[in-house]
Amino acid sequence: MIPTKFPDNFLWGGATAANQLEGAYQTAGKGLSIADALPGGQDRFKIVNQPDFNWQIDSNKYSYPNHRGIDHYHHFKEDIALFAEMGFKCYRFSIAWSRIFPQGDETSPNEKGLQFYDQVIAECLRYQIEPVITLSHYEMPLNLVTKYGGWKNRQLIEFFDRYARVVLQRYAPQVKYWMTFNEINSALNIPVMGQGLVAAQGADAMVNRYQAWHNQFVAGAQAVAYAHQQRRDLMIGCMLLYATTYAYDANPVNQLAALKENQAMNQFCGDVQVRGHYPSYTRSLMQSYGVNYDDLEITATDLQTLAANPVDYIGFSYYMSSAINVTDPDLAKVNGNLVHGVANPFLEASAWGWQIDPMGLRIALNELNDRYEKPVFVVENGLGAVDHPDAQHLVQDDYRIKYLRSHIEALRGAISDGVNLMGYTPWGCIDLVSASTGQMSKRYGFIYVDLDDQGQGSGRRYKKASFDWYQRVIASNGAEI
């Protein structure tokens, strides 16, 4: 029988990222980040994939909505108060690396940046909201890309280690839950946000993506080691983009293709960070992308570091599933959360073409739980949609409630299956700038923010219908959805 309630200690909350909501992009000593140089709009990845893209900010040619975000930097008290009103048990947010080390390669941190997060954390704790902090969420100092070439350069291990040690030493006494790199595996298809790689930095050579991953694996493992030195009960996880992957049909060719896609996208980065070693299929996987494992710079010390410092839990995003077909080139392709696939005839899709599959979330939870036998945490999930406020600024977002309800039902089913599920933090709990499209109009939140795609508007916050609904969900610990 499926339980009607969630565990008593279940972490209900919401999730955001510094570069998508804070704004104040050059305030109090903050340096430029890669997110600050990404143009807004649905063509942002087409633009950065051009061979002449050079990270120059050209406001005459492009808009940069991340520069303002929703000005959370100046409104965090108001925003966190709204989260508390909803009943959040936790709040997942990220620290902007470029606020702490503006250029990334300094030896001393920017104290004003640290003081900002002192205040954010204190505000959370004032409402008994557990902070869940991501160390690197699609944001790194721009200088580390333009001067050092991004994460393919091993020097970034040292720079990240310095940054991680500073924030962990400062905040570990107050903050129990951490994650290293957001959606680290997304670089398989889009390496710009997670690895800082564009064509000019060698993004088109897959060997650079795998080297960048290795450097991040080592940097993450070092952060795990230091975190555990600071606090014995601290939990620090990895964070994956997970899209449950199906073969389109029973054709064995498609079944094998789906298995390989699963290894490449869903499993590889998790296997290294959770198990502490490279999986048996590593050489075969890399060869399929034209990469020779022996060409990577991987030291014996690196491997020892990975083995000694696996993560404590698996955080992951889930928005959609993916169907794989390699036997019929005429099947329609679909958009997705940085993943590829064909249209699944059994599923509906969002306005952005992302296929809606709550059962896929239950499957994902079982797959991760069985594979790693460590706690799992759904740290992103939600529906991007265009919201239309009425004259009283109310958004009647029944479509969002329907999406989230079905996925919470999937969580309940997974718990009944025996999955060790820590919590649930829907993405963009307050409207923010979309990472995939650079738009405000692609909204996820329970709270409407009056800003458009050009950053114009009052910036005022208004509760959507989903605000009261989610408040009831949390108050009932998932019994009323």
UniProtKB/TrEMBL annotation:
Domain of life: Bacteria
Keywords: Glycosidase, Hydrolase
Pfam families given in the database record: Glyco_hydro_1
GO molecular function, one term: beta-glucosidase activity
Record SUPFAM superfamilies: (Trans)glycosidases
Entry keyword annotation includes Hydrolase: yes
Record's GO cellular component terms: cytosol
Active site: E380 (nucleophile)
Family of the protein in this entry: Belongs to the glycosyl hydrolase 1 family.
Record-linked PANTHER family: 6-PHOSPHO-BETA-GLUCOSIDASE ASCB-RELATED (PTHR10353:SF122), GLYCOSYL HYDROLASE (PTHR10353)
UniProt-recorded name of the protein: Family 1 glycosylhydrolase
Species this protein is from: Bombilactobacillus apium
Species classification: Bacteria, Bacillati, Bacillota, Bacilli, Lactobacillales
